[in-house]
Design goal:
This protein is an alpha/beta fold. Helix content is about 45%, strand content about 15%. The protein contains 10 helices and 8 strands. The strands form 2 sheets. A 6-stranded parallel β-sheet has the order 5-4-1-6-7-8, with helices on both faces. A two-stranded antiparallel sheet has the order 2-3. Helix 7 (about 125-135) links the parallel strand 4 and strand 5. Helix 1 (about 5-10) packs across helix 10, helix 2 (about 35-45) crosses helix 5 (about 75-90) and helix 6 (about 100-110) runs parallel beside helix 10. The protein is globular, with a radius of gyration of 17 Å. The protein starts with a helix and ends with a helix. The relative contact order is 0.18.
Length: about 230
């Protein structure tokens, strides 16, 4: 569906242009799968576990480390987290690849007066270092990563932190866009409008409990919709 058709559909459902856009980071704004794949398999190997394929990485890397690593590494999850982050820190800035249309979208929405913030389950220090490396922080009101709030996505605390100081409260005037089910769930939990951003459309019954309000094939389409809505 093209931007004009998406806009007609949104208007028919009574959805108007938001005042704020919250964005996931990894694989919504940047392609980070290779850095994550490398660090995750290095960590698994260190603890005597079998490596994951890229397909497994894409399916299984969703929650934050403090939510997912205890299930993988038990009582040694903090140690495993240190191994992951050491490896990731060595390489993540070298492998940053912006997804198509992202810098233009951030710039255009900022200039149009939308409040834009990031809510990610990447550790906050790494998130902000990547944004600085790319020069994007000038367009982003706040970058919230894992451990910045008292809980991580899909909990609502990161959403509240991302909007803190903006004068905007969660609701239908806030859109939350991301590529994964955890982003859609977080949006619904916070009462925001959930937007799925990825090339492939949602499969039948993929989001039975938290369906997205809108699917767009990338940030270029999302930007077009927001500017024309």
């Amino acid at each position: 569906m093209d931007a004009e058709a998406l806009i007609d559909d949104l208007r028919a459902r009574g959805l108007s242009r938001p005042v704020a856009l919250l964005l996931d980071w990894d694989n919504t704004l940047i392609d980070s799968w290779h850095a994550i794949h490398d660090a995750q398999n290095h960590t698994l190997a260190t603890f005597g576990l079998e490596p994951w394929s890229m397909e497994e990485i894409r399916k299984r890397v969703r929650g934050s480390m403090r939510d997912s690593y205890p299930q993988l590494f038990g009582d040694r999850w903090l140690e495993a987290g240190e191994v992951f982050y050491r490896r990731f820190a060595e390489r993540h800035l070298e492998t940053l690849v912006p997804l198509p249309g992202v810098p233009e979208m951030l710039r255009d929405l900022h200039e149009a007066g939308l409040y834009v913030a990031v809510v990610s389950n990447k550790k906050g220090d790494y998130l902000r270092a990547e944004a600085a490396k790319l020069g994007w922080q000038r367009w982003i009101g706040r970058l919230v990563g894992a451990f910045d709030a008292s809980r991580d996505k899909p909990a609502v605390e990161p959403v509240h932190l991302a909007l803190e100081g903006s004068g905007i409260t969660p609701g239908t005037q806030v859109w939350f866009a991301g590529d994964a089910d955890i982003d859609i769930e977080c949006a619904v939990n916070a009462g925001c409008v959930p937007i799925l951003v990825r090339e492939e459309p949602p499969a039948t019954d993929e989001f039975p409990d938290h369906p997205p309000a809108l699917h767009v094939d990338g940030c270029m389409t999302l930007s077009n919709v927001l500017q024309k809505l």
